Amino acid sequence: MTNLGQPRQSGHHIRGSASAPVEGRLFERRSPVSGAVVARYADGTAEDVDRAAQAARAAFDTGPWPRMSGAQRAKILLRWARLIGDNAEELARLEVEEVGKTVRFARGDAAGMADLTEYAATLAYEVHGDAYTNLGERHSAVVHREPMGVVGLIVPWNFPGLIYCQKVPFALAAGNSVVVKPSEFTSATALKLTQLAEEAGVPAGVINVVTGTGPVVGQSLVAHPQVDMISFTGSTAVGRKVLEAAAAGPKRAHVELGSKAANIVFADADLEDALDGTLFGIFFNQGECCVSGARLLVQESIADSFVERLVARTRALRVGDPLDERTDVGALIHGDHLASVVRHVARGQEEGARLLTGGARQDVAGLPEGCFMQLTILDQVSERMAVFQQEIFGPVLVVTRFKDEDEAVALANASSYGLANAVWTRSLDTSIRMARRLRSGTVYVNTQIDGAVQLPFGGCKGSGFGREMGRAGLEEFTQTKSVMVHIGKRVPFFGAKGE
Ligand code: NDP
Question: 98, 290, 391, 405: which one is catalytic?
Fold first, then answer.
């Protein structure tokens, strides 16, 4: 496994520069692949969050960014997108090192970071309000669309750069300033992307990054009185805490939470495509993906042969060093998470599920400390089992059979989550009916973990609310202001009074 060199060391990024890290107030990130220390970051405190929030406040209240035209902001964001493209290989490798994802897919993430930023730049031209000219001859009104102010952005570890780019460029396009809290496991890309933003011309203080832990940095950020809005992506359990703390403000909170997506295969599907999509749906990014197709619902008439082929194809995938271009699946984020994935599988077996392949930690030659998990399939899973209901967030597929469309819909919707589902069928009618009946923010038809920057993304039910990407992803970071204008001399409100 190649290493990027000496462990990186970094302080917070506040008011336009990275502060020097203070010895004794740093935490380490160990590679989930080799176990070696790859980085040391400042262990943020409530005071650090306060400095960052004050910097963002000053940038918003008196700085140039929210006062620029949309076109000026767009030009700077486009320069940022180009710099992201120029630095894509480094961004990809940082993510391989800290997340454990494969370099092949990390390159796709880096390209996505540039695409998201470019798209957000184009939206900056289009943030405008409305005019009401039909209110009668004595009134005219305009509805301004204004930035929220200072936005606190909390990012998880599975797609640190992509999720940063689903939030920061959109918040900036609308004129906000931000404080970002990356996951303590994956701080590198947030710091690098912020440095590139300032090289592109984003003024100091508009983006601030405070590294550290959720209970200290994250919680202080949500509670900070100068923070006008929170946008959080992470688990449903932490999302609940964020919502409670935001309610105390009160302040607006947008939450993108967990999921347990169904991947539904009808007998009339192109089964080769469905097999390929099922494998990608569960094993892409080690199964650590919010929209992973973690529940395979397969029609009874084809189930036995489909599952048999799936097991054979699963065994042929290569788990190992993520920097090796031939690797399909890398390492899980850390040892505690690996242990939790193994426990979920054991619990599934205790509840009566049948283990078809995998189920344990995987040894990889030369990487004895790597957090690798065998690719796992559990069959005979019913909707009452924990493995059907709970998000495992690892390479574990659970299989349930269905008779007909009604049963497929009932099983897919028998989840507290509602982020995404996928359907495989050759029937146009079935695909349209299923897309209407499935309760999730996204439905994939004959594809998996797919999308485009123009499409709004987000959940319903326990997967949260609010949208990222698309026009909606920018509007999340804005509020309206109605300006009502009276034309000409008023008739007195209380009627004319005699002298
Ligand atoms: P967590 O909920 O554990 O953490 C998410 C972020 O919140 C991290 O930066 C974390 O910091 C921080 N945090 C932790 N505790 C608090 C707190 N009390 N107050 C404020 N912030 C806090 O999620 P993971 O990082 O483990 O990510 C995996 C989860 O994210 C999965 O459930 C997945 O489904 C979900 N996810 C959802 C997506 C969506 O679009 N709906 C997309 C991607 C992931 P720290 O890391 O330091 O603990």
Answer: 290
Residue 235 lies in a domain: yes
Q: 3-state class of 308 per DSSP?
A: helix
Verify whether ligand 1 is closer than 6 Å to residue 157 (CB atom).
Answer: yes
Does residue 454 lie in a domain region? no
Residues 237 and 283 in one domain: no
Are 109 and 215 members of one domain?
yes
Residue type, 440: S
Q: Are residues 464 and 350 in the same domain?
A: no
What's the rounded Cα separation, in Å, for the pair 122 and 172?
12
Both 227 and 321 in one domain: the answer is no
Tokens standing for residue 3: 């290493």
How many domains would you assign to the chain?
Answer: 2
Q: Is the pTM of this model over 0.70?
A: yes
Token readout for 499 is 């002298």
* 164 pocket-lining for ligand 1 (C-beta < 6 Å): no
- 249/305 same-domain check: no
Q: Where are the alpha helices (DSSP H) in 180-334?
A: 188-200, 219-223, 236-248, 271-283, 300-315
Per-residue pLDDT of the chain (499 residues), as tens digits, is 334 568 999 999 999 988 887 777 999 999 999 999 999 999 999 999 999 999 999 999 999 999 999 999 999 999 999 999 999 999 999 999 999 999 999 999 999 999 999 999 999 999 999 999 999 999 999 999 999 999 999 999 999 999 999 999 999 999 999 999 999 999 999 999 999 999 999 999 999 999 999 999 999 999 999 999 999 999 999 999 999 999 999 999 999 999 999 999 999 999 999 999 999 999 999 999 999 999 999 999 999 999 999 999 999 999 999 999 999 999 999 999 999 999 999 999 999 999 999 999 999 999 999 999 999 999 999 999 999 999 999 999 999 999 999 999 999 999 999 999 999 999 999 999 999 999 999 999 999 999 999 999 999 999 999 999 999 999 999 999 999 999 999 999 998 876 6
CATH number at residue 300: 3.40.309.10
The boundaries of the domain holding residue 212 are 8-257+459-483
User: Cα of 257 to ligand 1 centre, how many Å?
Assistant: 8
| 416 and 279 in a common domain | yes
Same structural domain for residues 337 and 284? yes
Cα–ligand 1 centroid distance for 209 (angstroms): 16
Is the residue at 497 inside a domain?
Answer: no
Residues 326 and 363 in one domain: yes
Atom of ligand 1 nearest to the CA of 182: 9
Local structure of 363: helix, strand or coil = coil
Contacts of 446 (CB under 8 A, 6+ apart): 269, 270, 273, 277, 423, 424, 425, 431
CA distance 347 to 358: 14
